[in-house]
Specification:
3-stranded antiparallel sheet; mainly alpha; about 450 residues; Growth Hormone, Chain: A
């Protein structure tokens, strides 16, 4: 195996993970809903409606971005396979990532440009997810098949480590608390104004610069796979994609896997997309505290992903996936049962630290099990992918992960608005996890790529 190429591939995860860690989950997401909530309160909404409307608006942003990602992914993947060139696509989507993340600086705390905020976030999110499809497709050629699970898990672990380092840096030097200081007791660097939330708003440009800097090893050490076609044709791409979709009729295992992963990955993305906002809206956590919660989650994600990769190599990815889904379903049920004053229907003393402590534990499990689930899912997809058309296969994988991307945000938003309860809005995720688990019954542990 080419170790330099492997490390270059790992660096994509290191470079891109802060978008998910800082922007989707722990910093920008909670900042957005807090700004939206304040805006709705100022417009005359009561507290419950303001909270539910803020989560509903965030749901809408994730919904629209997810649909664009899902329906574009397989077409782009098939086209890249007909050209044999992936690096120009990765470079182009990297520019989208950087532009979208950097633009979040202009999301002001008065809530006057919430639509712009969602558009900028969506641009960066789409770039990140499309680039991921193309880098995932490079995984099958990084090493022998029995090493793919370990490489996938190690890549996710390295990425989560990057997310952890970036999160610590932003909490120490940028994100202001209500007292105007960071968690380290410092004023935000570069003279950023805490009153204008400039420390928190600087997270977007920080993520953009981080990505640009750490993609350098990737572009230096990773090259196009040799022996792939050199011609480009959209007609050939659509024909190839059509054959892959038609082949699902006889590839029962792949069809079941795409359907099952479509549901359980949507549920996992729902947890990631709404975990930080839940802590902000239900438990009343400040963004800096949500960031500390993120540190704990990301540490567990890195550790679990590394260990999960070893478990994948020993048992195969399917048992790992099943165990993660069952455990995450139980975590969702625990979150659903929690309020600041009760746990599983039993009252706790006012001011008790128990709800916060249990939610912190949930963060550990969501981070750790979620990282392991993603790594094992990528590994199982490799076992189903045609080695000659890996990008197309991961395009279908991207489609399955995003084709129902509207489900989790839509269901969470609908239940939240219908009940005026952010807490009850989490309930649909349990159903999505369990439905995905049912479809895994028809998935072969070693894949079915030989069936064509």
């Amino acid at each position: 195996m080419d170790r330099k190429r492997i490390w270059g591939w790992y660096f994509f995860d290191w470079a891109s993970q802060p978008f998910h860690t800082l922007l989707v989950t722990f910093i920008f997401g909670p900042y957005f809903v807090s700004v939206a909530q304040t805006s709705f309160l100022a417009a005359g909404a009561n507290a419950d409606v303001a909270r539910s409307d803020a989560q509903g608006l965030w749901s809408l942003g994730l919904l629209v971005s997810g649909l664009i990602i899902g329906f574009g992914a397989p077409i782009l993947g098939a086209f890249a396979d007909t050209t044999g060139r992936r690096m120009p696509w990765i470079a182009g989507f990297s520019l989208m990532y950087v532009a979208g993340a950097a633009a979040l600086w202009w999301v002001l705390p008065d809530g006057g440009n919430l639509t712009f905020a969602l558009m900028a976030f969506g641009l960066g999110f789409i770039g990140a997810e499309y680039a991921l499809i193309f880098t995932n497709a490079q995984l099958p050629r990084l090493g022998p098949r029995d090493e793919i699970g370990r490489l996938s898990g190690s890549g996710f672990a390295f990425g989560y480590l990057g997310g952890l380092v970036s999160l610590i840096l932003t909490l120490v030097f940028l994100v202001e608390q209500p007292n105007g200081l960071t968690v380290a007791g410092l004023s935000p660097i570069f003279g950023l104004d805490p009153a204008a939330r400039e420390g928190t708003r600087a997270i977007g440009p920080f993520v953009a610069l981080w990505f640009a800097a750490f993609m350098v090893p990737y572009f230096l050490w990773v090259r196009e796979d040799p022996g792939l076609p050199a011609t480009a044709s959209f007609s050939a791409a659509f024909a190839s994609l059509g054959r892959s979709v038609a082949a699902l009729r006889v590839r029962r295992s792949l069809a079941a896997y795409l359907g099952g992963s479509m549901l359980y990955r949507d549920a996992l993305n729902g947890l990631y997309g709404f975990g930080g906002t839940y802590a902000t809206l239900v438990l009343g956590w400040e963004i800096a505290r949500v960031g500390v919660f993120g540190i704990v989650s990301v540490i567990s994600a890195a550790a679990f992903s590394f260990l999960g990769g070893r478990l994948d190599r020993r048992l195969g990815p399917k048992p790992v996936i099943v165990g993660c889904i069952l455990s995450l379903s139980a975590v969702c049920a625990l979150i659903l049962s929690m309020t600041p004053t009760s746990i599983m229907g039993r009252a706790v003393a006012p001011g008790s630290p128990l709800p916060d402590a249990l939610f912190m534990l949930c963060g550990v499990l969501i981070g750790g099990l979620g990282g392991t689930l993603q790594a094992a899912s990528r590994s199982l997809m490799v076992r189903h992918a045609d080695p000659d058309r890996p990008t197309e296969a991961f395009g279908l994988y991207g489609l399955s992960g995003r084709a129902t991307a509207f489900l989790a945000p839509m269901l969470i938003g609908a239940v939240t608005v219908a009940t005026d309860s952010v807490r009850l809005g989490i309930a649909p995720l349990i159903l999505l996890f369990l439905l995905g688990l049912v479809l895994l019954f028809w998935v072969k542990p070693d894949g079915d790529r030989a069936v064509q």
